[in-house]
Design brief:
CATH topology of the largest domain: Rossmann fold
Strand content: 15-25%
Shape: globular
CATH class of the largest domain: Alpha Beta
CATH superfamily of the largest domain: HUPs
CATH architecture of the largest domain: 3-Layer(aba) Sandwich
Organism: Rugamonas fusca
Structural class: alpha/beta
Strand order of the largest sheet: 3-2-1-4-5-12-9-6-7-8
Distance between the termini: 20 Å
Family: Belongs to the universal stress protein A family.
Largest sheet: 10 strands, mixed
Number of helices: 10
Pfam families: Usp (PF00582)
InterPro entries: Universal_stress_UspA (IPR006015), UspA (IPR006016)
Protein name: Universal stress protein
Radius of gyration: 20 Å
Length: 279
Amino acid sequence: MSYKTILVHVEKSQHLAGRVALAAQLANRDEAHLVGAAMTGLSQFIYQCASMAPEAAVAPADLSFLNERADAALAAFEAQVTQLGVKSFEHRRIDDESESGLTLQARYADLVIVGQTDPDEPAPSINGDLPQYVMLHSARPVLVVPYAGKFDKLGEHVLLAWDGSAEATRAITCAIPLLRRANKVTLAVFNPYAEYNTHGAQPGADMALYLARHGITVEVLQQATDLDIGNALLSLAADINVDLLVMGGYGHSRVREVVLGGVTKTILAEMTLPVLMAH
């Protein structure tokens, strides 16, 4: 089990190089095919409306700057992955918004890599919630890279957030290709007896045994905390020096509004290390 196709979001951003470097590292590690996708930001619905009402169509010349911006980002992506020795890659320019365009492309990838929303940089999506939207709608694991910090290595020490939920189960299962290569894996269970019938007699032991059958050795860490779980996870990650957090992503979507669970919202806002999420 390994990632054979990795999709990375490409945009004109000061954070693009760090994200692409991480994507290239994973692609080289598994000899995966790397796809860089840049969305122009023009909604697909404009084209649909134009086909039904040609008189309302927007002239292509008016939109040339959108194509030029996407093409410039893709050129930077191609130059960087070539320099980093990625053997198999391609780039795609897609006429769509970032959320829907990336979600569609994610159907044909094993892993999607996006950047955390930087409040000091123009948002790559209309609502500034690209990581959340793709996580909730793509049915693929999403690796979110923080906008602050440098992450030369990924997955040497991995922290698994385990709460017995379906979302956490999916996230951990999706992370198995990374866990197999890790030097150390820690599974954290916070306040394990707070809810009835969530865990077995030894919280975390069942998941540790499941992963052991995949050849993954796991250290189970049970902790009681008065902190909210999001901040407890980030604090633990810093204390034990992990370089990747794996967790379930919680939330739902109402039309275009993404409504997140408290832990997911905290992590996506305050993350200090790459986070792999699945819903």
